[in-house]
């Protein structure tokens, strides 16, 4: 169980493993999405320019899977933690589903975007809620400006969202907890190195991540089983 003092500031970095027990596939493990799809064909600006219908087919499939999923005990434990720590918690997720919010979290930064939002790829119209499934033979949706509507997702080769806020929170945190992330995708994989030496750094997941040597403690197990106890006393 973690001891969190009344002055601690906690940074949570969530990865695909947090939603795994809700039935949303991870990316790199057995059954992971990148075992069945090629990143460069469905999740990059080049893919979008080459075949936007294929990209929408991929994200429509992911919308369908995510809309059937329900939050698991890991999401509820994190929502409870937010309730307890209030502004002393900064929750950053790489996940694009909305299961944190469904569990009751109100302030989660989605650094890789949100699956149920879309935006215009051309004009500055802000991202908007969108649960449509855009699959062939339907045409790629268009904005009023004529630009193509794209998923509000940070693709490979693009800059993640809210990095300014994220690095400010990393600079302030005294306890860093990464959960269910393989530690290979930058910049998130380097967040732990950024806080090392001045914050306690903890990893939670069934196996050691690639950046395991940067963590001071690892709790090996499923997020839905470890987190409710880990934060239980708070
Ligand atoms: N609880 C906790 N962790 C789990 C669980 C579970 N029940 N099941 C699997 N995991 C762990 C795996 O051991 C693995 O380390 O979750 C991790 C998932 O790793 P990835 O599939 O690489 O996912 P993630 O690290 O979140 O990927 C980062 O890569 O493709 C991109 O944009 C995508 O946000 C994603 C980013």
Set down the secondary structure blueprint.
Blueprint: E1 10-14, H1 17-20, H2 33-36, H3 39-42, H4 45-50, H5 52-67, H6 73-85, E2 89-93, H7 99-102, E3 108-110, E4 113-120, E5 128-129, E6 149-153, H8 163-172, E7 175-179, H9 191-195, E8 200-205, E9 217-220, H10 223-230
Parallel strand pairs: 1-2, 1-7, 2-3, 7-8, 8-9
Antiparallel strand pairs: 4-5, 4-6
The structure holds adenosine-5-diphosphoribose.
Adenosine-5-diphosphoribose (APR) is lined by residues 15-17, 20-21, 26-29, 32, 94, 112, 180-182, 185, 205-207, 209, 222-223.
**Mean pLDDT over all positions:** 95
Terminus-to-terminus distance = 9 Å
> Strand sequence of the main sheet, in spatial order?
3-2-1-7-8-9
Determine the structural class based on helices, strands and strand pairing. alpha/beta
Low-confidence segments? none
Q: Any idea of the CATH class of the largest domain?
A: Alpha Beta
Order of helices and strands: EHHHHHHEHEEEEHEHEEH
- The gyration radius over C-alpha positions equals 18 Å
Which small compounds were modeled alongside the protein? adenosine-5-diphosphoribose
User: What is the helical fraction, as a range of percent?
Assistant: 25-40%
Question: Quick gist of this model?
Answer:
With 234 residues, the chain is α/β, with parallel strands linked by helices. The chain has helices spanning 17-20, 33-36, 39-42, 45-50, 52-67, 73-85, 99-102, 163-172, 191-195, 223-230; strands spanning 10-14, 89-93, 108-110, 113-120, 128-129, 149-153, 175-179, 200-205, 217-220. It has 2 domains: 1-24 and 71-112 and 159-234, TPP-binding domain (Rossmann fold), CATH 3.40.50.1220; 25-68 and 115-153, SIR2/SIRT2 'Small Domain' (2-Layer Sandwich), CATH 3.30.1600.10.
């Amino acid at each position: 169980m973690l001891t969190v003092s009344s002055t601690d500031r906690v940074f949570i970095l969530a990865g695909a493993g947090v939603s795994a027990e809700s039935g949303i596939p991870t990316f790199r493990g057995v059954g992971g999405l990148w075992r069945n799809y090629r990143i460069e064909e469905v999740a990059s600006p080049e893919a979008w320019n080459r075949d936007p219908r294929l990209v929408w087919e991929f994200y429509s499939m992911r919308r369908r899977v995510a809309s059937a999923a329900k939050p698991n005990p890991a999401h509820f434990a994190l929502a409870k933690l937010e309730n307890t720590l209030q502004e002393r918690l900064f929750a950053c997720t790489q996940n694009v589903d909305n299961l944190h919010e469904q569990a009751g979290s109100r302030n989660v930064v989605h650094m890789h975007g949100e699956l149920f939002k879309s935006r215009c790829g051309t004009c500055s119209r802000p991202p908007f809620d969108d649960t449509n499934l855009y699959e062939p033979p339907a045409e790629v949706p268009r904005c009023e400006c004529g630009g193509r509507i794209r998923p509000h997702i940070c693709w490979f080769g693009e800059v993640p969202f809210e990095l300014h806020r994220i690095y400010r929170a990393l600079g302030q945190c005294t306890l860093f907890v990464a959960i269910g992330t393989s530690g290979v995708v930058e910049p998130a994989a380097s967040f732990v190195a950024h806080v090392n030496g001045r914050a306690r750094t903890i990893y939670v997941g069934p196996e050691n991540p690639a950046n395991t040597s940067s963590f001071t403690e690892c709790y090996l197990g499923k997020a839905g089983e470890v987190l409710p106890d880990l934060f239980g006393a708070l």
